[in-house]
Amino acid sequence: MAASLRVRDQHIAVFGGSGSGKTVLVSSFYGAAQEPSFIKESLFHVIADDTGQGHRLRQIYLGMKNDAKTPPTNRFAAVPYSFTIKLKDPGDAKAAKTRPFDALRLIWHDYPGEWFEQEPSSEAEATRRIDTFRSLLRSDVAMVLVDGQKLLNYAGDEEKYLKSVFGDLRDGLLRLRDDLLDGGEKLNEFPRVWVIALSKADLHPEVDAHGFQDLLIQKAADDIAALRDVVTDMVQFPEALSLGEDFLLLSSAKFEIERIEVTTRVGLDLILPVASILPLQRLAQWSQRFDIPRRLLDVFADNAEAIALVLVNAKAVQGAIGRLPKVGPLLALILPVLVQAANLNKVKIEEVNAAARAKHETLTAVLSQFRLDLQQGEDDGIFVKSNR
Predict the structure, then answer these.
(1) 166 and 229 in contact (C-beta within 8 Å)?
(2) Single pTM value for the model
(3) From CA 80, how far away is CA 109, in angstroms rounded?
(4) Which helix (H) or strand (E) holds 219?
(5) Which phi and psi angles does 238 have, rounded to 5°?
(6) Are strands 79-87 and 7-16 parallel, antiparallel or unpaired?
(7) Cα–Cα distances in Å, from 1 out to 4, 298?
(8) Element (H or E) spanning 243, and its range?
């Protein structure tokens, strides 16, 4: 009987107003991963854990690809999507025993923008909003979508639209605050990295991630700061928080009259690296700057220790940890490995990636490629990463 996969979950919470493109994004993310070209070239499969949900997402993708048809707005639906990132070449049984895990699972939480724009219509809906928000608190990364079409609509007055984006999110969190803070105790588990992303970036071909960052700072710095203040007031150890410091361009396709070119995408290949590698890098930065309480280390970045061990291929460290009694969080024992993994330069990561591919160490190859993809996103002006 085959051994079951050891799967590590990575959560990402996506916030965006009605029509900002959340459903199109997740459909394009999944649909593109089912294309024969991706399956042939990739080191992994992207598998929808709910087959019916996967079919619906691919149906939307194929509707765009073949019929230039966009999906109707999915109003008021709080939908979590779950995808397992399964290695195509898992290696032999001996190799499998030495790695910390076998597969990643991306859980994509889609929070309805209407819930931040409108008051609940009933007590039942208010309760549902609170329960939904609690479900995404495990996310290490939150992504706030700025609608590229609405930016065009407000050209010259972008601050009016941006004020509503960040103001609605801020007010929504304030409404939920007392229900989320049970007994007034601040949260230790909460998204710590908040990426601001320009959806429908194809409508702004002249804007790179730095230009998007500049626009937000010029037009909405105070509104972003007010949102940051609200989040800061909800979490324990708010020093470990990055909000309004990372910026990403996203485009699901190139939309033309009577045609949608689904192969012309921007930023979707960074979703997995942002969800898995970025929290590790940020935690390493924070651990060098702050004395983070040991009790909080393991909730700041899911799977950081396991991913770090894979990237540095630290078999000796793994063996040593196996012999150590666990007193407090495991992550506290291997902070040096975490910092080493996060600080590997591009040349070293390329060496790790090439060696892993040659040795068929697929998990190391995949995660090191994610690390390279993040760097490439920065080089290409698609992603701006905080260095703080």
Answers:
(1) no
(2) 0.91
(3) 4
(4) helix 209-232
(5) -70, -10
(6) unpaired
(7) 9, 33
(8) strand 242-249
Q: How far is CA 58 from the centre of its chain?
A: 21
Structural class in CATH, domain 7-384: alpha beta
pLDDT above 80: residue 334: no
**Predicted confidence (pLDDT) at residue 369 exceeds the cutoff of 60:** yes
Q: Which of 12, 1, 2 is nearest to 246 (CA)?
A: 12
CA distance 141 to 155: 29
Query: Which pair of structure tokens corresponds to residue 287?
Result: 């651990």
| Strand-pair category, 242-249 with 383-384 | antiparallel
Beta bridge partner(s), residue 195: 143, 246
DSSP reduced 3-state for 80: strand
Which of 255, 248, 304, 254 is closest to 271 using CA atoms? 248
Extents of the domains making up the chain: 7-384
Burial 206-217 (b: 16+ CB within 10 A, else e): ebbbebbbebbe
Residue matched to tokens 């709080």: 78
Sequence-distant (≥ 6) Cβ neighbours of residue 140 within 8 angstroms: 10, 11, 12, 191, 192, 193, 275, 279, 300, 301, 302
Reported as a single tens digit per residue, the pLDDT across 134-162 is 888 889 999 999 999 999 999 999 999 99
Task: Compute the distance between CA of residue 41 and CA of residue 52 in angstroms, rounded to an integer.
Answer: 26
**Residue 276, number of CB atoms within 10 A of its CB:** 27
Per DSSP, 235 falls in state: B
Mapping DSSP to helix (H, G, I), strand (E, B) and coil, where does residue 15 land?
strand
What DSSP element (H or E) covers 143? strand 141-147
The answer to whether the beta carbons of residues 243 and 228 sit under 8 Å apart is yes
User: What distance in Å separates the CA atoms of residue 111 and residue 159, rounded to the nearest whole number?
Assistant: 23
CA distance 10 to 107: 6
pLDDT score, position 316: 42
More confident of the two residues 3 and 10: 10
Cβ-based neighbour number of residue 188 at 10 Å: 15
Question: Which three-class secondary structure state does DSSP give residue 10?
Answer: strand
Residue for token pair 């490439």: 376
